[in-house]
Amino acid sequence: MKVRITAIVATLSLALSACNPSVSNTVGSSETQRLSLGQSVDIAAVGARVSALRAGQGLARPLGHSAALQAAAQAHADDMARTGEFSHRGTNGSTLSSRLRSAGYNACFGAENIAYGQTRIAQVFQDWMASPGHRRNILAAEATQFGFARNGTYSVLLLGRSC
Predict the structure, then answer these.
(1) Mean pLDDT for each consecutive 10-residue tract of the chain (163 residues)?
(2) SS3 113
(3) 96: helix, coil or strand?
(4) Neighbours of 63 (CB within 10 A)
């Protein structure tokens, strides 16, 4: 199976001095969350993976899980799987910024990684860390929260900091 991963990384960074992160941290829980049309994903395991990658680069603060980022990631993964499109632009014209707003996430910082074709989540993260733009997103010091979704072999990771 040919592995395709986007070379274009959508990054939204808003430099607002009044940003105070609001973190809902469920990373420590051991629950597996059933996501809309996607597959079951162990959110705690994904959070631990992202936090370990960040800690290995000196970013010791773990990311908290955000239900709003989760919803936006799942909506985009579902859209790509439904249509077969692989893009940071949704089939309805949505962008990272508009998807975050639609999910009710007031972003001071937002970044999106997408991937297609990997059968295992570990391979998705390995490919992202081998790509400079995706790696930069995962290691962004501005990020305090994450959401991750899969539908088939479409994966979406959203990183953010709410205002």
Answers:
(1) 32 29 34 45 89 92 94 96 93 94 96 96 96 97 96 97 95
(2) strand
(3) helix
(4) 25
Kindly state the tokens that stand for 41. 């994903």
Residue 151 parent element (H or E): strand 145-151
- For 52, 68, 85, 163, the CA distances from 145, given in Å and listed in that order, are 14, 10, 26, 12
The first and second tokens of residue 63, run together, are 């990311």
40 contact partners, CB below 8 Å, separation of at least 6: 32, 33, 34
**CB–CB of 100/143 below 8 Å?**
no
Beta-bridge mates of residue 13: 109
